[in-house]
Amino acid sequence: SLSLSPSSSAASSGMLLTAAAAARPLPLPLLSIGSIDMPSSFPRALAAPASTSRRRRRSRRNPHRRLPRCCLSLDRADENASATSPSGDLRVAIAGGGTGGHIYPAIAIADEIKNADPRARILFLGSEAGMEGVAVPSAGYDFVPVPTVRLARPVFLSPENFLFPFRLVAAVAASWRKLREFGPQVVVGTGGYVSAPVCLAVALLPGARLVIQEQNSYPGVTNRVLAPLADTIFLAFESCAKFFPREKCVVSGNPVRLSLRRFVSKAVARSHFFPSAAFWSAGRTAQVLLVLGGSSGAHAINIAVLNMYSQMLSLHKDRFVIWQTGEDSFSEMESLVKNHRRLVLTPFLHTMDLAYAAADVVVSRSGAMTCTEILTTGKPSILIPSPNVADDHQTKNANIMAEIAGSKVLREDELDSSTLETTIDEVLGDESLMADMSEKAMKYAKPNASTEIAGSIIALSKSSTTK
Questions:
Q1: Which domains occur in the chain, in start order?
Q2: pTM of the predicted model, to two decimals?
Q3: If you average pLDDT over every residue of the chain, what do you get?
C-alpha cells in the first residue's frame, strides 16, 4: 500500500483524487512539463503555480510557442488522441509492485488471461528498481518502467513532501503516455504505491476500464484512494467490503500461481527436499515443518528457529525442517546453523508447490498471499505477524486466519525459541487438531480466484469503448 500513515490518509486521499478529478475527459490539447506531456484537463492547481496563469493565456493564443523547460507550454495534440491500437485483440495493462504480495497476484491474473485468450496482449508497468523489474520479465511478460512517488515519513514534517504534488503530476503524466501508446481496454491495479500513478492516469484515458485487486483483510491507502475511479474491486476477504462501494465489490479470494493448484504427491515432494532420507521408502511416519522467512527475511522468526531447531530435531527423530531464511538473512543463518540431514536451509524457495506439498505445518509471517497459499493448500499454520507493516495489515490477516482456519497466532513481542517450539509441538503432536485446521483452511479456500478475476476482466473489456 501507499506509504502513508493512517493519520494522513484522508488528506492524501483528497490530494490523489484531485489529480484524477477530470475523469475520462474527451481528448484535449496537451500540457508539457519539461518533456512530459499531460492532457490539459489535468487539474491546473497541481500542474502549475498561479503565477504561470498569464503565461498560459499567452500560450493558448499561440499553441506552438515553446516556453522555457521550467514553465508550461501548450502543444496541440492529435484531435483523436486516445487509447487506440490497430489490433482488435484484448489488451490489458497491469500495475503493482514493491513486494511479492502485489507482484505475484498480478502475474497469476496475467497467466489466467493468457490461458483464456492466448492472443491477449499484456503489459506490466512498475518501478525499474522494484522486485517487479525482475519478476515480471522472468515470468515472460513485457514490462515498462514508470516513475513512482511516495510520501516520506514523518509525513507532515519531511520537507521532501512539499514536492509530492508535483512529482505525482509528473508520474501520472508519464504513466498516461505509456498507457496511451499501449491502448489497453482494461487497466488492473494490484496495489503498492507504484500502482497509484498508473491507475490515476486511467481517468485521463478515454474508454479504458479500471479494476483493482485488494489482497489484505484491511485495504491499503492506494486502493482506498482509487476505489471511486474503479469499475470493479476484487477482494480476498468479505470483511474488506465495508471499506469500498459495495456495488463494485466482488469477493473472489486472492489469485495464486497455477502450480499451487495442481496436485503434488507428498512423498514425491518430500523426496525432492530430502532425497537420501529412508523414511519415504520405509513408509515410516514423518513430520515436516516449513518455515517461511519471507523473500527478504524475517529476522525475529529466523532467530527463534536458530535457537530451537537443534534441540527439536534431537528430541524428534521423525521431524524434518525446510527453512527459507530470506535473501537478506541467509548468509548470517548459514554461518550459524550446523549441517543436519533433516534440515534444508535456503535463501529462497523456487518450488513453493513442492514445499507446501511436503509440509505438515507452516510457520510464517501473515502476509496476504502467504495466508491465501495456506488456505489453498489446506495447511495448518502458525503465524507471526510483522509489526512493521502499514496499517498493521498482517495482524488483521492473522486474526482472520485464526477465525476461519484455526491458525495459531504468536505476536512478535512474545516470540522466542521456547514459545515457538511449544506451539509447534502442540500442533504436530495432535493429529485431530491438524486435521481440523486443514479442513477449515480448505473450506475457506478460493482456488479459482485467478480464473474468476480473469473472466471478469475479459468481460469488462467488451464494454470498453477503447478499440
A1: 6-22+80-256+448-463 (3.40.50.2000), 30-75 (no CATH), 259-444 (3.40.50.2000)
A2: 0.75
A3: 82
